[in-house]
Structure formats: C-alpha cells, structure tokens
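New to this. Please check this record:
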Amino acid sequence: MMVSPAILVMMTTLAQAAPPPLMTPANAKASAQILLRDGTALFERGEMADALKKFQQAYEIFPSPKILFNVGAAQRVLDHPVEALSAFQRFLAEAPDAPAGARQEAQQAVAALTSSLGRVIVECPEAGVDVSIDGTPVGVTPLAAPIWAVPGQHRIGGRHEGMIADVQDVTVSAGTGSAVTLAVRAPVAPAPIVTPSLPAAPLIAEAPAAPPLIAPVKAQPHEPAAPPVAPAERSLTARWWFWAAIGAAVAGGVAGVVLATRAGGAGVPGTTLGSQGFP
C-alpha cells in the first residue's frame, strides 16, 4: 500500500505536537518524541513492522491519543484491518483537537475499513462475561459496540468465573452484521445420589413356645400278683374233673335210658353185651 506524503507529514506533526493528556515527567514526553521520529523514518522506508513497534512504545511511555493515528496507519499497511480500524476510531474519539487534515485522513480510513469488514453483535443475558473472538479478548458484556472481524469463520467465546462457558461459531460477511447470543449459565447442581432402599427385613415370627416339659412318669410301685388260690380254696365247679364226671354221668344216663329202652321194648333184638357199667 502506498503511503501518501500527507500522512507522513501528519505523522511527524502529531509526534511533535502531541500534548500530554496527563501530567507526566518531561523526560517521558521527550523519549516518546524520539521514538515517534524513529518510527516515522522506518515508516518512510517501508519497514512497517519496526515502525509499528516504535509507535507502540511511544504510546506506552506517553499515552497521547494523537499517537494512535500513527499506530493506525502502520496497522493498515501491515494488512491488520481490525486493529487499524480500532486505532483510527479511538483517535477520532479521543483527539478532537487533532489537526483537521489528520482527522479527515482518519475518517476516510474508517469508511474504507468498515466496508471491508463484518460486524458481530454479541448478546448475553449475563453481565460481566469476558468475550473473545478467536481467542483474543475484546471486552466484557454488555459490549458497547459490535466486534469487527474480517470475512470468514470465527469463534466467539464467553467466560465468567463460576459459570459454564459458551463458545459459538459464526460466519462473517463484509459490510453485514451477525448476531450471537452467548448462553453462559450457572452450573447445574448435581442430582442427589439416591441410595436404593433395601427391602424391609421380614418380620421374624415368634419362636413357637417350647412344648411343656413332660414330667417323667413315675414308675408305679409293682403290685404283687395275687397269690394263687390254694387247691383247697378252689370252688367245686372250677375243677376239670368235676365237669368231666358230670358229662360222663349224663352220657351214661342217656345211654342207660337208651339201652334200657332197647332191652325191654318189644321188637328190639337182644344183645350179648350185657349191662354197661361206669367207672
């Protein structure tokens, strides 16, 4: 990129005329002016990276917003459009008393850069969330302005201490805006661990009552057997020979009747057996 002579002149003028925004030691201002002159010389030779370092060192020693014009010019040549846009915007916002030529140059640069970049509008219901794009911090929610980015795919991240971070991918197009809502949220408390209850132990039935102790049967005293009846004491009817004699007598009587009937009756033949006696 060709640098116009007007920008070089403006850079030198701003380096010499930058008033300190705060009361600082005089030697800090003098050191910053030396760095700006060295940076401008490097810028003219096309050594943009070294020139940018000199400008940034001068701003750190003596933070005059007018030095941001030099920073923006070097960043634009190095093809860092987002960083160049930020430097020019800050220069316009913080150095209203800068030379008119410098402000006009900065305004033209802002118009060209914004048309080539895209905007990412970040929304987040939580305040105080650190927002980054592609790992580079860009601010804390709620953001005052959209995030500028070169066209392409980018990763927007949101982090807050004690909360679950959120990272989302977004596609950026030149001249347009894209909205991203970061869902940073508080961690969910873990569910309580429920210990499964063990089944109730079965009721233990009362042990059956012990059977009553059975008292041992006392042995009854042995009763002596009745003494045998003496033969003399036995009744007459209990004797075997008594009934035998009776039977024999009856039988003998009947036989005698029968025999007597047969002997004396008519038509009954006689017998040689004679009378039958009995013992």
About this structure: Residues 118-181 form one domain. The beta strands are 118-123, 130-133, 136-140, 147-149, 152-159, 166-172, 177-181. Residues 240-264 form the longest helix (25 residues). The helical segments are 5-17, 26-44, 48-61, 67-77, 81-94, 100-116, 240-264.
